[in-house]
Amino acid sequence: MTSPRPDEKLLHCPALVATRVIAGKWKTRVLWLLRERPHHFGELKGRLPGVSAKVLAEQLQQLERDGLIQGQAELRGGVSFVLYDYTRYGRTLIPALDALGTWGLEHAAWETGR
Questions:
Q1: pLDDT surpasses 80 at 29
Q2: Which domain holds residue 67?
């Protein structure tokens, strides 16, 4: 029996799978904002200075494709808005994001204390 090459193991690393889903400059920020409440696209764009509409739309589509959020169209005064919110499955990611955020704060403190 042959053992898998080390790089094959990395391809199937569960931590890598998880980080690929949330990788992207804006994804974790979007997920953080949606913890408060659902947001419309324009609200997200307004609360994320520096993101272009194109990039935000791409990141939202990727989060939807991965089943973390869902967009639901609403009609208000003849204008259609998409309201984004966590899916039930997406909410299972919140504890992991909390743990990652805590680690990030600790790491930042460690870096400044070196």
A1: yes
A2: 11-113
